[in-house]
Sequence to fold (176 residues):
Amino acid sequence: MQHCESVKGESFMGKLTRLIYASRANFRPVEASQGVEPTVGRILFQSRRNNSRHGISGVLYFGDSHFFQVLEGEPQAVNETYRRIGADSRHRDLTVLSQLPVKERLFSDWSMKYVPAENSVKAFLAKRDYLRFAPLRFSKSEAEELARLFHRQQAEGEGSGPLPARRFSLRRLLPF
Ligand SMILES: Cc1cc2nc3c(=O)[nH]c(=O)nc-3n(C[C@H](O)[C@H](O)[C@H](O)COP(=O)(O)O)c2cc1C
Fold:
């Protein structure tokens, strides 16, 4: 079945891309006794506001001062968002780990899902002999596997995090 979406009045047939990148934080994380690290919280707020406007979905993970982010959507929107993110002084060393045309989204309900540090990520790292979260060194298949792990957790209803994660249906944003 062909997938047809229309965002901001433009129609396109089934063109979706998934970009996964990693980066290193430029700030010293504040030890939050509970909840999300404050800078990460601000990033999530901006991401959810902008991404829902541009038909972008995805997931953000922050651990050991590194970001791992999945961006999904229409290729131009994903590339523009990535360019904007790349100019952000809150992180550096952005490295694209994977970019693939995809038939469907992994995080269709989330303008930007947040995954808090948790045991499943520790197990993922341990299985691959990583002592710390070092996503800049991930291979393409490791990046895709971690994205799928986050997808499975979402399907199982885990890991939505302490922020009121804003759910949205892309379909509900569309003008038809
Ligand atoms: C790790 C990281 C992830 C980000 N992810 C997104 C994102 O998914 N979408 C987005 O619009 N901005 C994201 N941002 C923020 C952008 O870099 C930029 O600050 C923001 O888009 C500017 O939006 P504004 O002009 O509406 O304030 C991210 C920033 C960082 C450091």
